């Protein structure tokens, strides 16, 4: 079913050795390569457009859904719409992610549009990893769009990771939070070569007691370019924090642009942004522990992005 | 074990458009199994000397030998792997690197949590609270300093150089710090410790004391011989040298 390259991509993006436990839908080169549903989690193919609906019954606890996508053919371009309906009071883990291996001359592109409808008091942990490999001239392009609609008291934790090999990314995430809802975003990004990565967050805190914590850590090396814009809007008594912390190396460029908008007297919003190179003292310290300069640099970057 | 032969270190002096000598023709021998404290007035070149030994700075003249081998042109990493450790006066912070990571890098092997905890306990930290902490700005100066010392303990090398280990450790009694050094000296076979310090109680446990002023060694000898001359006049040493200089 899946070939060696696809299995390797699956391992990179979802830590999977073969088929996952629980509900899953594996998409390989624009085709469904496997699906499993459970009593509480249903996966239905959309009609008319590519994509799936994932329906999680209210009260579903300790279950997971894996929906990895792998592309190993050069020249594939696809847009996929996945909608998640997460029932009230459920507690689930959703693992998405896309791996592209492009050894050919043509660009490969996967644009995943994910919409989450998170029911009252539901708890979701969402992990999305992006990875690219292959030595071809064709670019590996990923443009994910994510929309999150959170009802009262729901909690969503999003871990977005792109460490290697994706030539071009334009990520857009919007979230709307009702009273008492909480959103936590942890983005980790490493760009190298001539890559570009643009990441935009637009989080609206609409209900009393809603809160958001959007944090990005990134490393830009070689000639890569990163742009990070995170906007938190407080429309009610709420609290929001956004932070971008970046290490710049070589000839890279970074634009960090956190934004806050308060439309309520009791909206407490904070932003922080820092861009800097690796401190010489950090390298020297690790060298006095016996690491070479290159090893020291790698340790510092790995720690920063851990 | 370590021998400095006619070491000098100059830096560019922008104001006078010339060079300024920080270390001036120093020769010093540190034998095996010795606990040597280098003291002297501020600005006398003590920290520079420690950095020259670790390879962070390169001497502008002279030769450094370690176990008879010329290491003058060897870099920081090479010297570290030959058995020289260095504890910074102002420890470095790392976002994301945990205390356990740093100890494992230092030990050059996979330390179990229990082993790592031993090193932390030795420097007076309640290990469980620290092992997974990031070595970042959330740690106080004193906590970082103790972790810095723990990394040197984890390395267990033959020569350990500490640059003002007592600085910033205000809440931790000196007695504990002294016990750490005494224990190190006892357990590290053929190992030597070099400490940059003004602290009388650290000077008091030294085998040898070196007094460094204006980039030169003004005194060097056994503790019993040197310490009585320094007691109560520790800062006067620098003042006298300056007075003499002024009178010339």
The quaternary state of the protein chains shown equals heterodimer
CATH-assigned fold name of chain B: Rossmann fold
Counting DSSP H or I runs of 4 or more residues, the number of helices of chain B is 10
The largest inter-chain interface, given as chain pair and residues per side, is: A-B, 22 and 24 residues
Largest sheet of chain A: 11 strands, mixed
Structural class label of chain B: alpha/beta
Structural class of chain A: mainly beta
Strand proportion of chain B: 25-35%
Total count of strands of chain A:
21
Residue share in helices of chain B?
Answer: 25-40%
Through-space gap between termini of chain B: 38 Å
Low-confidence stretches of chain A: none
Which characteristics define this entry?
heterodimer, A: about 300 residues, mainly beta, eleven-stranded mixed sheet, ten-stranded mixed sheet, about 55% strand, globular, B: about 250 residues, alpha/beta, Rossmann fold, about 25% strand, disordered C terminus
Please give a quick description of this structure:
The complex is a heterodimer of chains A (306) and B (248). Chain A is 11% helix and 57% strand. By secondary structure, chain A is mainly beta.
Question: How would you explain this protein's 3D organization?
Answer:
- The complex is a heterodimer of chains A (306) and B (248).
- Chain A is mainly beta and 306 residues long.
- Chain A is 11% helix and 57% strand.
- Chain A contains three helices and 21 strands.
- Chain A is globular and about 55 Å long.
- Chain B has one domain: 3-Layer(aba) Sandwich (Rossmann fold).
- Chain B is built from ten helices and ten strands.
- Chains A and B meet through α2 and α3 of A and α2 and α3 of B.
What's the layout of helices and strands?
The complex is a heterodimer of chains A (306) and B (248).
Chain A: H1 4-14, E1 23-28, E2 31-36, E3 41-45, E4 51-56, E5 61-66, E6 69-71, E7 77-86, E8 91-101, E9 108-118, E10 123-133, E11 140-142, E12 145-150, E13 155-164, E14 168-177, E15 182-191, E16 196-205, E17 211-220, E18 225-234, E19 238-248, E20 253-262, E21 267-276, H2 280-288, H3 293-305
Chain B: E1 2-13, E2 18-30, E3 35-39, H1 46-54, E4 61-66, E5 69-70, H2 76-82, E6 84-87, H3 99-107, H4 113-122, H5 127-130, H6 141-155, E7 159-163, H7 174-187, E8 192-196, H8 200-203, E9 208-213, E10 216-222, H9 223-230, H10 234-247
Helix pairs in contact in B: 3-6, 4-6
């Amino acid at each position: 079913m899946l070939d060696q390259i696809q299995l390797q991509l699956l391992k990179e993006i979802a830590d999977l050795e073969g088929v996952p436990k629980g509900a899953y839908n594996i998409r390989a080169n624009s085709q469904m390569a496997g699906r499993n549903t459970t009593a509480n989690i249903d996966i239905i193919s959309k009609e008319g457009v590519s994509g799936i609906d994932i329906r999680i019954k209210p009260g579903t606890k300790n279950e997971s859904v894996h929906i990895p996508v792998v592309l190993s053919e050069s020249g594939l371009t696809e847009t996929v719409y996945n909608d998640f309906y997460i029932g009230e009071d459920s507690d689930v883990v959703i693992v998405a992610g896309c791996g592209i291996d492009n050894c050919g001359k043509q660009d490969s592109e996967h644009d995943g549009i994910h919409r989450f409808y998170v029911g009252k008091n539901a708890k979701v942990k969402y992990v999305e990893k992006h990875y690219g490999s292959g030595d071809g001239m064709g670019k590996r392009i990923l443009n994910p769009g994510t929309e999150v609609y959170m009802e009262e008291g729901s909690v969503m934790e999003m871990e977005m990771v792109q460490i290697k090999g994706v030539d071009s990314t334009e990520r857009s995430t919007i979230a709307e939070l009702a009273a008492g809802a909480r959103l936590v975003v942890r983005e980790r990004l490493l760009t190298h070569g001539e890559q570009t990565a643009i990441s935009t967050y637009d989080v609206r805190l609409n209900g009393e007691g809603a809160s958001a914590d959007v944090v990005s850590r990134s490393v830009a090396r070689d000639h890569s370019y990163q742009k990070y814009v995170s906007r938190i809007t407080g429309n009610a008594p709420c609290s929001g924090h956004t932070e971008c912390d970046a290490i710049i190396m070589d000839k890279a460029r970074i634009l960090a642009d956190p934004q806050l908008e308060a439309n309520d007297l009791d909206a407490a919003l904070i932003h922080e942004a820092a861009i800097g190179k690796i401190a010489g003292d950090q390298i020297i310290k690790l060298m006095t522990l016996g690491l070479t300069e290159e090893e020291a640099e790698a340790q510092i970057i790995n720690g920063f992005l851990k | 074990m370590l021998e400095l032969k006619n070491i000098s270190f100059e830096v560019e002096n922008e104001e006078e458009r010339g060079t300024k000598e920080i270390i001036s023709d120093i020769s010093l021998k540190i034998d095996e199994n010795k606990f040597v404290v280098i003291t002297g007035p501020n600005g006398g070149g003590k920290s520079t000397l420690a950095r020259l030994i670790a390879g962070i700075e390169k001497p502008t003249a002279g030769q450094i030998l370690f176990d008879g081998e010329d290491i003058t042109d060897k870099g920081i990493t090479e010297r570290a792997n030959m058995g020289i450790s260095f504890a910074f006066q102002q420890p470095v912070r790392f976002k994301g690197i945990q205390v356990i990571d740093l100890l494992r890098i230092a030990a050059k092997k996979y330390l179990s949590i229990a082993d790592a905890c031993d090193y932390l306990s030795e420097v007076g930290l309640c290990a469980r609270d620290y092992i997974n902490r990031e070595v970042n700005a959330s740690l106080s100066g004193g906590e970082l300093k103790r972790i810095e010392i723990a990394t040197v303990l984890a390395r267990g090398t033959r020569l350990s150089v500490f640059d003002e280990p007592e600085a910033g450790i205000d809440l931790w009694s000196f007695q504990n710090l002294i016990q750490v050094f005494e224990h190190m000296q006892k357990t590290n076979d053929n190992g030597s410790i070099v400490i940059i310090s003004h602290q009388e109680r650290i000077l008091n446990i030294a085998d040898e004391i070196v007094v460094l002023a204006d980039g030169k060694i003004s005194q060097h000898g056994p503790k019993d011989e040197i310490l009585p001359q320094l007691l109560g006049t520790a800062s006067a040493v620098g003042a006298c040298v300056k007075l003499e200089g002024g009178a010339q």
